[in-house]
Design brief:
heterodimer; A: 112 residues; six-stranded mixed β-sheet; B: 115 residues; mainly beta
Chain lengths: 112, 115
């Protein structure tokens, strides 16, 4: 079992719709959770971080964390073609020196 | 702007050659990391350094070595390059945030091809 799992996609959403991305992790001691956006051939860009159960909103992005169920999700509201990218989920474990473990990423395609 | 830079951005080399990838940062962060990214395998940690005197192996360190010349500089070397080291290489930095050393910021990447 991979430590951090994501559906590879592609997740196809119409422009203006909500894109919903999910990520599950295996280590119950995980403490910090991140979403990165990566355009093709470019470097990952941090877009959201979440540390506590519940929702965290930043602009059109909402991260949701449920530690009991070991999943973290990302919602993109009013999706735009510029949101077309691969979204990487990353998890940090303090006992492992806060190193990040990345999922394989979900590719999102927003169609005009 | 405080930034993370990598040189070279693209490199083509031959099997058996020694190659060095360099990373510099002006963010003032103390932790630096080297990752490689392969299609379908995601980002994998090669080496990381918590400060100049603290260097640690990641999950795929075989065939690689690193040097932390200063707080702002972290180099990755391939002593004898082989074709399966063809990948996109990223440097990243982090510093203590509200929840500890968590948020990492990535350089633009180096695309390495070993023939």
């Amino acid at each position: 079992q991979k430590e951090v799992e994501q559906n590879s996609g592609p997740l196809s959403v119409p422009e203006g719709a909500i894109a919903s991305l999910n990520c599950t992790y295996s280590d119950r001691g995980s403490q910090s959770f991140f979403w990165y956006r990566q355009y093709s051939g470019k470097s990952p860009e941090l877009i959201m971080s979440i540390y506590s159960n519940g929702d965290k909103e930043d602009g059109r992005f909402t991260a949701q964390l449920n530690k009991a169920s070991q999943y973290v999700s990302l919602l993109i509201r009013d999706s735009q073609p510029s949101d077309s990218a691969t979204y990487l989920c990353a998890v940090s474990l303090k006992a492992a020196g806060n190193k990040l473990t990345f999922g394989g990423g979900t590719r999102v395609l927003v169609k005009p | 702007d405080a930034d993370v830079t990598q040189t070279p951005r693209n490199r083509i080399t031959k099997t058996g050659k020694r190659i060095m990838l360099e990373c510099s940062q002006t963010k003032g962060h103390d932790r630096m990391y080297w990752y490689r990214q392969d299609p379908g395998l995601g980002l994998r940690l090669i080496y990381y350094s918590f400060d100049v005197k603290d260097i640690n192996k990641g999950e795929i360190s075989d065939g690689y070595s690193v040097s932390r010349q200063a707080q702002a500089k972290f180099s990755l070397s391939l002593e004898s390059a082989i074709p399966n080291q063809t990948a996109l290489y990223f440097c990243a930095t982090s510093s203590r945030g509200a929840k500890g050393y968590n948020e990492q910021f990535f350089g633009p990447g180096t695309r390495l091809t070993v023939l």
